[in-house]
Amino acid sequence: MPGDHMSNDEFFTQLTNLFEHNRKKGHGTVYLTQKRLTYDTGITPPSPTKVLDDPLWDTHPENPLPVLVHAANNKSSKREGKGKPGNERENVEKIKLSTVVQPDKLDAFYVRYAEACKAGMGGLKKRERKKKKKDKKKKKTEG
Amino acid sequence: MPYLKTSTEWYEQSSLLLKARPTTTRITSKYSVLKPSSSKIAKREAYAAKRAARASTTSPPPQSQAPPQANPEEPTATFRLKTYDPVSGTCLQYETNKAAEVGRLIGRLGMLGRGMAGLEEGEELSGAAENSHTVEQDVVMGGTSTPIEQKPAAGGGGGKKKKKGKK
After folding, report:
1. Which residue intervals are annotated with compositional bias (Basic and acidic residues) in the record (chain A) (predicted)?
2. CATH code of residue B15
3. Does ipTM exceed 0.90?
4. What's the pLDDT tens digit per position in A19-37?
5. What DSSP string describes B68-131?
């Protein structure tokens, strides 16, 4: 969907919302994709003859290209067999976000991106060093 | 569709793939929190019951070990990175469930992003403090205590206590 990219700032606020939505719901998926943006950039692709001459032209572009970043959640539909545990879920519409990151803003973008993701991915396992050590000791005493 | 064992390996391979096919390669990261299905819950409950039964029959070790999933309805969360090039069909994946890795992985995404843009990949941005090795300080045990001849098995009592405190 070209044309409706949002600004980086708006992307981040929406991304935070997306993670928050996921957290509230208690389950669900957030997809994040990044890709080089090659269309619609005003950069003319090299002519076919030139491509034939140098089939690997895209490995050394003349100018740095922007990067496209997508974020989306999963669409979900109700499961059958209502009433059993694990089957209580609602229909959820898909939310799509996308933004274009200019090459000179990449570094700043990824610093914020890392913050947003670290904050958003609260479901992952935290470090549990102490517990592990205890377990090891227990094993030792057993054996 | 290989899963790579370490994130470093994933990063290196992805970086090579990006260098070879920078326009078509895309990186998808997927953070998913999944509630277990009803059959999975049933399995977990059965497993927990089995464990409990075994624990009661074999009484001697009375440790009340917490089962891996204390709550059978606990969701599982994973973070999966996938580098995919549709032209060659190459697909590289890495999956983790540790929150501590997220920052480092996003840092690597940033480096790969630079590669995508056609810039030099350069240094890692945010994950610099990933390995906070505490510098081991086994110093000056003899300095404070009276100079004892070092015996192989039994160390000076005072010295040992200090060591424990430090760790």
Report:
1. 51-61, 77-93
2. 3.30.720.10
3. no
4. 998 888 888 889 999 998 8
5. SSSSTT--EEEEEEEEEETTTTEEEEEEE-BGGGHHHHHHHHHHHHHHHHTS---S-SSGGGS-
